[in-house]
Amino acid sequence: MSTTDTVTPARAGRREWLGLAILSLPALLVSMDLTVLHLAAPTISADLRPTAAQLLWIVDIYGFLIAGFLITMGTLGDRIGRRLLLLIGAAAFGVASVVAAFSPNAETLIAARALLGVAGATLAPSTVALIRNMFHDPAQRTTAISIWFMSFMAGSAVGPLIGGALLEVAWWGSTFLIGVPVMVLLLAFGPVLLPEHRAPLPGRMDLLGALTALGAILSIVYGLKRVAEDGLTVTPLVTVAVGLVLGTVFLRRQRTVAAPLLDLDLFRLRTVSVSVLALTIGAVAVGGVGYLSAQYLQLVADQSPIMAGLWMLPPLLIGIVTTIVTPIVGRRIGPGAKTTLGLVVAAIGLLVVSRTNDDSGVGYVVAGLVLLFGGIMPVLALGVDIVVAAAPPARTGAASAITETAQELGIALGIAVLGSISTAIYRQQMRDVVPPEGVPADAVQAARSTLGAAGEVSARLGPALLESAERAFTDGMRLAAVVSAVLLMITAIIAAVTLRRIRATGGGPH
Questions:
Q1: Is the pLDDT of residue 507 over 70?
Q2: Which segments cross the bilayer (predicted)?
Q3: What are the domain boundaries of the chain?
Q4: Is the domain 262-501 a CATH 1.20.1250.20 member?
């Protein structure tokens, strides 16, 4: 009689879970800085007096550079060490936060935000790669990545709330100083709690590939954001086209260099390809419908920015609960079934959002977002786990960068495409509205541009024209929600077929 020994992965102990708490802090902060500046923009404008173009760069350059440098930083961490890169990024993030807080002019603030973006790009792939190396047990790893992802999503939601509270009692620079104590904690405890890990034979860094990837992602993200704001005009379309060409060049180069930045062999695994697809489409839905819902709450439901942020808390809390529960349920249900179920629930939530009308208040929007976040957040966490688990240990930094890039591009794509759909419906309906007599022509033109512009001249429009503008915006948001629901259902069908054979794992910290 013979026996076969099965090697059981080592389970994480107290040190690893404390290390996870430290790793969750930069995830919270990086996502918070993506949204915390939105409420501070008017105050910054009054103080530093930037031009319109400078204000755009102050708000956007942080997210642009995070997206652009993710793949490069993920690969760099594999080479020099994930903990070392994380600590370097944390120090740079802290310094840049102080510079941003006390910027005397717009140019300094733009430069500081750019450094924050580059530093932020070091944090996400390093943290996920370290989690992969700290938690070898599949159940514990799934739980750890879910907690990390929950922290990332929480930062996006609480950013406007914290920013609004700080602006009530302090100057705009205080919104940047939030990051300083967080990074001090990371620098103090990171060397003690986090293990170092790097690829054993990393090879030469592909600098030309890094520049090509940066140019491709920046061009695509910038072009998509301009499409969302300006519509399908020549400049943003050309910018996106340039990005696609650079992206094609980058992918072809990755097949020929000895040490590629992006391991294309990972995409030969259908589970990885479908997980990245689910990450991207999920981010499209959250980014696009979340963006439109925030506008609806403020411009149609007449909620203040802080109240709009508070209305976003129930969806976030439900998303946190489902993200925590998912690994436990995963003991009996495989990742494929959970991914499919999450996508279907999220699609149902979007159909609930599509029932909103201009006088229904916040009920349908909040209820729909509860289902959207409750369904999609576990899907996104699962997608990260599947992709990172599929990568060899030496390539986990690059693999985690793939998941982060998919989400960043998905959010940009969602805002651009779904925002463009909403804007097209809005402008089409407003062109057919006959303005009441006595309304100035410039006010009518503003109202036909965007609902935000209509709100700025609402006193001159009259109630009938403003109601038409609110109805047109709501109809555009409803169509965007339906389009997102269809995309999620298609992805759910693909996931149900492709991921059904992945073994069920899950669990919580023990």
A1: no
A2: 17-40, 52-72, 84-104, 110-131, 143-163, 169-194, 206-225, 231-251, 272-294, 306-328, 340-356, 362-388, 409-426, 479-499
A3: 13-196, 206-258, 262-501
A4: yes
